[in-house]
Amino acid sequence: MTKDKTKFSPEFLAKIKAMLLDEKAKLEKELLKFAKKDPNQEDDYSATFPNYGDKEDENAAEVADYVVNLSLEENMEKTLRDVNQSLDRIDKGGYGICKYCHNSIEEKRLLARPTSSSCMTCKKAITQEV
Ligand SMILES: [Zn+2]
Known about the structure:
The protein is mainly α. Helix content is 60%, strand content 5%. The chain has 4 helices and 2 strands. The chain has helices at residues 10-34, 56-92, 107-112, 120-129; strands spanning 35-37, 45-47. A two-stranded antiparallel ribbon has the order 1-2. α1 packs antiparallel against α2 (56-92). The protein is elongated and about 60 Å long. The model has no long low-confidence stretch (mean pLDDT 91). The structure holds zinc ion (ZN). Zinc ion (ZN) is lined by residues 98, 100-101, 103, 118-119, 121-122.
């Protein structure tokens, strides 16, 4: 027996895994619309600089869109990393454990957000602190 404390059924984990893989595929597809994958590093993308033309307003639009793409890329890359980490934990054990209290996270919460890393009780406690 492993030391995995989670009580999730294989069916539940399979469902979550399918959701995560689906999200991963969507994210990668979206990222490739405005970013290039770094061939040397897994899950690392770089936003590409758009090219609309050489006029001044076109150049300005390029810079403006590039800035938007950069932050978009950063957010999506972070989400992708969370998704991959969750997938990793499903395979190796430890998925769905709250990082604060080490209890299992509510299934309802995981179904709504498969990358959740804290249970509702801890999440609430933290949100109220801020
Ligand atoms: Zn907790």
